TrEMBL record, chain A:
One of its GO terms (cellular component) is mitochondrion. This is DNA ligase. It is an enzyme of class 6 (ligase). Belongs to the ATP-dependent DNA ligase family. It comes from Drosophila kikkawai. Signal peptide: none annotated.
Amino acid sequence: MQKSITSFFKKKSDDTDSPSPPKKIPKIDRKAELPDEPTIKAENGSPEVKPKAERMSVSPEEKTKNAPKSVKEETVATTDRKVTTIGLNSTAKDSKVDVENYDPSTDSYHPLKHAYWQDKKVTPYLALARTFQVIEETKGRLKMIDTLSNFFCSVMLVSPSDLVPSVYLSINQLAPAYEGLELGVAETTLMKAICKATGRNLAHIKSQTHLIGDLGIVAEQSRVSQRMMFQPAPLNVRDVFKKLRDIAKISGQSKMDLVYNMFVACRSSEARFFIRSLIGKLRIGIAEQSLLTALAIALVKKNHIDDCKASKVPDVYKDEIAETTLLLKTAYSQCPNYDIIIPAILEYDIKELQERCPMHPGMPLRPMLAQPTKGVHEVFERFGGMHITCEWKYDGERAQIHRNEKGEISIFSRNSENNTAKYPDLIARSKGFLKGEVESYIIDSEIVAWDVERKQILPFQVLSTRKRKNVDIEEIKVQVCVYIFDLLYINGKALVTKNLSERRKLLLEHFQEVEGEWKFATALDTNDIDEVQQFLEESVKGNCEGLMVKTLDEEATYEIAKRSRNWLKLKKDYISNVGDSLDLVVIGGYKGKGRRTGTYGGFLLACYDTENEEYQTICKIGTGFTDEDLQVHSEFLGKHVVSSAKSYYRYDPSLEPDHWFEPVQVWEIKCADLSLSPIHRAAIGIVDGERGISLRFPRFIRIRDDKNSENATDANQVAHMYQSQDQVKNNQKTSTQMEMEDEFY
Amino acid sequence: MFEARLGQATILKKILDAIKDLLNEATFDCSDSGIQLQAMDNSHVSLVSLTLRSDGFDKFRCDRNLSMGMNLGSMAKILKCANNEDNVTMKAQDNADTVTIMFESANQEKVSDYEMKLMNLDQEHLGIPETDFSCVVRMPAMEFARICRDLAQFSESVVICCTKEGVKFSASGDVGTANIKLAQTGSVDKEEEAVIIEMQEPVTLTFACRYLNAFTKATPLSTQVQLSMCADVPLVVEYAIKDLGHIRYYLAPKIEDNET
């Protein structure tokens, strides 16, 4: 006899699809994350163990009553979604286990066998969400990258066309950075969608979000705690990506509806990461460099899928990984577009990558950055015996100006943002400085504000008052002049592998100066220390920040990933104790006492470790603020309080502040010197295994609105500043050459 | 050819009011046994099932089975144009892409008809199995609506706990907690005011207030409401429509977590 208890809701259409539906074990899916199982089910009698919390104890008396009683009622239960995809019977069981336990971080992970979506060839979003979840719980950077590479490897092997969306979703981008396509969904909109989908109240969600500090988690909890009548079809990576792009492009009510419809289909941790993607913060600590490394490792794993276990690959094929990573990073720095790179790595040999992904005008390449020095002496120490050139370091905005064969001009910022719309005046007069036949070019330059009457450079603050968008050429008040200092591409030829002296020669051949509009950066080729010193003083008089020092012939190419010899910058304030000020992130606040009651009295500052992608404490600070400053900081930071330290903050418990902040603001800080500290964690492991570096007598200088927290001073730079102190140098004779990648001004 | 005629437009109005908050659009499945509608709300948390038997209509004719996808908002607009006492007739040709709704005043002096475009909705049809419920509670519909409305002020979810003694609705939130207990009525004088509990096993389940309050929009249709519950199974809230059929709402329970 068919017991009513074992029945459950099912799609009527299923009956026709599957002539004899196998007996399924109905059960309510507590986590709503089994894509292939009945989600809701009927009553007792099922072999499933009922969650105890949900049942009240049943007295024997009641039990006996139970049997004869028959209030025949229909009940609801749901069934499997697509009969055609995953089988309902035994395979359903297997896949269920795989889905729930999908874990690309295990040592035994096999990119093929454990890719449970093999037969479908469509990467489920849940697999990606699971990967993110595991990565979020992982501490070590290498392990995180390895986990991601396992997932990527599976995608490459099983569903390669999903690799592009998977990669974009992993770094939470919708398109190459320079296209500037951003989601921009307000948190309240998301909250409303969550309310609608789970029957909750907006006020409750708001207060819970405030408490937990992450709408993603709130969304997941809300999702998981409300069962559904019928689970919509599982999401897959490419649809999610496509929908996110749609969401970014539309506005108004329909945006909210799209979010809502997607959210309804989210299960378990999908809800968390979907919402985080929409907010714009994935919080898994994977950024561009880690991602490229993970891709490289995945490629190597793919090549050696039969040779050995995936977990062994990183050890056995170390060299191949290093080589692949370099090739990939090189290609990415000249062609920062995954839409081009990823199909290329899937189709061609990695060694051909550079030819397959050439640079071309209209697509920004990563700019060469400079590292700070303390003085002329240090420059000569570092560049000893090489031919060098010094250029004035203009105080303006870095600009990469592109012109393609069709004559279209685009202008990109230091961070590869498209600034073309900001400078219609430059585009209007862009013909003037060409000399001879120039069809296409990429130049590297600095745009500075220009006083037309007095013919002189104006400070950066003037430039920053220019409108950013919808600039009307008639209404421009701040005139600009472009100082060109490098040429990276001319008439279809990339010049990045040429030396600076050659590039400069070509620059002078093809371009000419136009007074007040286009100028070449004032330069001096000299190896005389006194001349450099004098040139520096001249540059300061010429309203410049200082000098940029570059090698002319040796290691003088423009290849970022290959680590061409870095440029150095010499700044006018190098005379102070520490060569440069530090730009540090405020991550915590201590409540003020006495006169400072009601505001924060001190703050906890951190530098950013780009390798580990974490913030490491470097000092507490309480001086250099006026009362007004404190008021302003307290108000601003008060809006960014989070309930607990971020997982990517490294600090000693003894430093626990009263309030933790989101890493939202960067301050310029000066200090007397740097010393090793048992409690601070800056650059820990670089200079000393146990101790970090801290600042002595830090003073607040100003807020660096132009930098975001990830552009703060890097741990390597801190280590380098520490080591280049005379005192330290005398102690340890063999100072290691620190390699620094990031700029620091 | 499909044709269905009801003596009073007011019933159809009330039915529309009872479902249009949950559903934006739905398919009316017509056969010679009557009209069926079954649809989940957008969030897939609740399900509405409406049955109108052919014998409840003044006139009912359905030559071939017909599925009519309708925008319920538009349908409600059309019904607003009817007087409560009007006769109402729904008509459609086989394979038509429109439905005609006609109102006739009681004295036959005014006849208005409205033609509405149909939609092609590919909604999932769910088979609803029969279940032995642990608890079935019958109570006055007004009372249930009142309880849901009151408790929603305290929390976003309501706990319904049914035991031998009676049924208890409770909610707790920032303000505090609210408990409403109903005992089984001793002697039944007026059937519509009775609270009747049939229980085999005690049940405690948690539901989102938002949906319960949406269900109570059906209160004008019926004096009594029937709640059927069983652990881990959706709640069924049924309103009988006198002589015509019933409307049932299914609601997936919430998973109680310890924090709330």
